[in-house]
Design brief:
By secondary structure, this protein is an alpha+beta fold. Helix content is 55%, strand content 17%. The chain contains 13 helices and twelve strands. A hairpin with a 2-residue loop joins β8 and β9 (182-190). It starts with a helix and ends with a helix.
Amino acid sequence: MLIGETIRVALGALRANKLRSMLTMLGIVIGVSAVIAVVALGRGAQKQVNDRIAALGTTLLTVNPGQGMTGGVRTGGGGAKLTIDDATALVDRGEKIAAVQPEINGNLQVQFLNKNTNTSIVGTTSNYPEVRKYEIETGRFFTKTEDQTRQRVAVLGPTVVENLGLQSNDAIVGEQIRIRGIQFTVVGVFKSKGQASAFSNPDDQILLPVQTARFRVLGTNRVRSISVLAPSEAEIPETMGDIQKILRREHKLRAGKDDDFQIRNQSDFLNTLGETTAVFSLLLAGIAAVSLVVGGIGIMNIMLVSVTERTREIGVRKALGATKMNILFQFLIEAVVLCLLGGMIGIMVGAGGAMAFSKFFGWSTEVGLSSVIVAFGFSAFVGVVFGVYPARRAAGLDPIVALRYE
């Protein structure tokens, strides 16, 4: 039998049972679309993280409290701390440091008229917008003089403005809010940065002068982190060495003793978050790929049923001269066509689903060509693997026994 005729017979068999063919493809459609959508979400999340970190600047270093040592046993940072004095020492003695910006923080209730909200209160220095790449949308940021004189001024994130029941950022500038019962004047509102994650929203915070926060609101000199700008990318190693030398002296750490602080640059964050995102993406894609295997098993089952139903047809074709290879090729084509059609539909559904997530839920998604090729190729592979056994079984039927089959 000619190859063209074999293909026509195989496709005719699929058209004769349209509903069954569609239901058989469903497992492949779900599997491919799930893989495409999950990988698109993972790639989008990774790109979003990379963009956010890159937006902070490549010369930004972050100093965090590290791990202390108690009786020779490493502890989880409870004994180690960073203070405002550490930040001051970096400013005064740093030779390769362009800017220093400490942060102290706490969650407190904020009141405006009859509205109130719980938000993050951050005490920081007047160079915060420069170091952290924030922009003021309305009003201004507080000055160095206002910080030194402990003025009660505040800069709000746009989410705080919404939570206080105001529709316009302009409406809050110049108004009085209360933090821990203390009255503050709002001098500015930041432009929206967008929520970084489920646990961090840079738009939901209020910034105060660090000295005001330290002595009037939070009552502590312990800082959450110290951001440091290196003069240039080439000088980052020198800046890190400068920070380490100054802080070890401030903390009175003897030679040979481990640092009780950590210095991280943007590359560290990018690598760590990139690896974490990649692992989660692979994990989710692997789970989604299981449905492809399940869909392949479903195709094999349907093809086995089809072989049983068409036993007499196979016997007639063999009696008329069809070879084992003709029969095997026909049933294999049916299985592969089902998987390829399912793969094509799955790609469209998956890409459409990724676009829907982006449009309706605001999630960052990115459909990559590599994931489309892999999903489509895997669907073809599933068709071949799970189609071989039914095809071989059909090709191996004895024509006399097949003709007698009822």
